[in-house]
Amino acid sequence: MGSDHMVDEKARLIDAPGSVRPYSGEGPSGPRTLHRLGVALLAGVLAVVVVALATGLMTGRPVGVTDNGDGVRLFCGAGLVPATPTGQANWAGGVVLDFVAGGVPCPDPAPSSALALLDAAVGGAAGPWALTELGWLYALAVAGVTVLGAWAATAGGLLRAAVLVPPLVPLGDADFSRFFLSTYGEPAGMLGTYALCVGTAAVAVTCPRHRAARGMALLLVAAGGLLAATAKTAYAPVLAVAVLVCVLTSIAVPGRPRRWAHLAGPALAAVLLAASVAPLASAQAWQARHYAWVNTHNLVFTLVLPEVGPEAATAVGLPAEANSHAGRAYYPDGPAGVPGAEVIAADPEGVRNAAWRTLVRHPDALLQSLGIALQSTADRELDYLAGEPWTPATRPSRVVAPVGAQAATAESLHRWLDEMSRPWWPSLLAAAGMALGGASFRIRSPLARGLGRLSGLAAVTAVGLALVAVLGDGFFEIAKHTWLSAYLLDVALWAAAGTLAVAVMLPLRRATARGTSRTVR
Question: In this structure, is the dihedral angle defined by the CA atoms of residues 309, 315, 316 and 317, taken in order, positive or negative?
């Protein structure tokens, strides 16, 4: 990202004596502080309104995500008890909004940054507590990230705040924002990913001499990567991208040679990696204690056996008879009567590693699996997870198909995939976003360049998340596991559209400016 400095220096030469430019609130050395502050605060207000409307917090008709059994792993750690007749929230048929706070936390909750945010929302309360308080916390956090990102992005011009539009627009879709009213780890992952996108966008529209702005943007990138990866270990690709952005970003040091500009970013990347080791190790150990055999069962039976073929069973150490259950997930029936299930239970890590080696030897199967994972992002509605609030009159969900139509068996999965009208669209969008990200290095307009790079970053991260999803749990509950990828593909699409819009508008603006200059003369 060091080429930004040269591009901005060229841009300053455009303002030759006698030229006429539309007023943009910029002083001799950039936008005025008061104008930048106004734009940042306005962006923050817009962000909180977008999230509050999408989640129904502002209208009094909240929309969230019902607990499928994952939520209790977090809210028990905050000492919360659902205010339902059974004292449970899973598969209640609706989103349990009312809890009783002040209970004794469970001894082994899932380690997650989402639990820290839930604890902050509870705030030591005792007695009745509403999940809407957590929703407002996330809405305000999104606003705070937006304010900081807009402040940083406007260091080179007020119009550059438009680079934050692509990350924010998808949050107006309830399919994404409704997770803010849930007790899952996903909302913290979304918040962290949003901060990564906002911070990267701000980096992309500034140059090394914007030291304070870039420093703020890099802190957003680092904090976002750490928050997302520690929300769920499956979101580790967000952390990897955050580290890469930090390493590639330069910040000028006054009075020092240019090489000093390349120190701050890598130093922050090193700190970020060091800070992530302990929480990621703790989360991975917790996952291994509770779900290692479940995840490996899903990987082998829903992905490896169906995609690689019959020879895969013996390749991963299972009997050939295991092929009779190819395509069947661990839930809802469990491992009873499944040939080879006892092998997985005895050594889940060894079987998982063998499954990964088998996929490496069959790259066509791995590529096909990645394509299915990306295709699943088209169904981000997750209809099997109710969004309406639970009431005493709500009928409990039927647990016969607890993961929706898409993942209980291979037949239901492919029937669901075959119903999609444009199965190729997500993969095409990911490829186009990455191509635009690469091409953005030849774009001269800072805003168009920033949007192009954001599109590329969002697409790369979406593909990384989809790959980790299938390698971690096969096709089980795949649409939920690629839900964050779906958000990022929307970001990539909006950023690409913005790049094209700026590319069309910029020549028109220059032509208008030249016409005005001739008139003045």
Answer: positive
State the residue for tokens 């991975």. Answer: 284
How many helices (H) does the chain have, and how many strands (E)?
Answer: 21, 5
Task: Give the pairing of strands 81-82 and 98-101.
Answer: antiparallel
Tell me the C-alpha distance between 170 and 296, whole Å. 33
Q: Compute the CA torsion angle 189, 193, 195, 201 (nearest 10 deg).
A: 180
What stretches of 55-185 show up as alpha helix (H) in DSSP?
Answer: 72-75, 113-122, 132-153, 165-168, 174-177
Question: What is the DSSP code string of 158-191?
Answer: GGGGGGGHHHHGGGGSHHHHGGGSSSSSHHHHHH
Alpha-carbon distance 409 to 373, whole Å?
15
CA 74/CA 285 separation, integer angstroms: 16
Burial of 376 (0-12, 13-18, 19+ CB in 10 A): buried
Q: Which two tokens stand for residue 15?
A: 């303002």
In whole angstroms, give the CA distance from residue 137 to residue 133: 6
Q: Which two structure tokens, joined as six digits, stand for 301?
A: 């039976």
Write down the residue that tokens 């069309």 correspond to. Answer: 504
Contacts of 442 (CB under 8 A, 6+ apart): none
Structure tokens belonging to residue 314? 């013996």
Give yes or no for residue 515 having a pLDDT over 80: no
For every residue of 230-241, DSSP letters joined together read HH-GGGHHHHHH
d(C-alpha 467, C-alpha 367), whole Å: 9
Give me the residues paired with residue 149 across strands. none
pLDDT tens for residues 15-71?
A: 333 333 333 334 445 678 899 999 999 999 999 999 999 999 999 999 999 998 899
Q: How far is CA 18 from CA 269, 467, 516, 518, in A?
A: 45, 55, 11, 10
Determine the Cα–Cα distance for residues 406 and 414; give it in Å rounded to an integer.
Answer: 8
Q: Which residue has the tokens 């380690």?
A: 111
**Orientation angle between helical segments 236-248 and 264-298, nearest 10 degrees:** 160
Longest dimension (CA), the chain: 88
CB atoms within 10 A of CB 211: 17
Q: Estimate to the nearest angstrom the gap between the alpha carbon of 182 and the chain centroid.
A: 16
Around 476, how many Cα atoms within 13 Å sit in the side-chain half-sphere?
A: 22
Q: Rounded to the nearest 5°, which phi and psi values hold at 31?
A: -60, 150
pTM here is: 0.91
CA distance 134 to 130: 8
Please tell me the distance from the alpha carbon of residue 451 to that of residue 165, in angstroms, as a whole number: 9
At CA 202, angle to CA 31 and CA 236, rounded to 5? Answer: 165
pLDDT, tens only, 398-454: 554 455 555 668 888 888 898 898 999 999 999 999 999 999 988 888 999 999 999
Give the amino acid at 109.
P
Tokens matching residue 227: 């928050």
C-alpha 7: how far from its chain's center? 30
Other Cβ atoms less than 10 A from the Cβ of 38: the count is 16
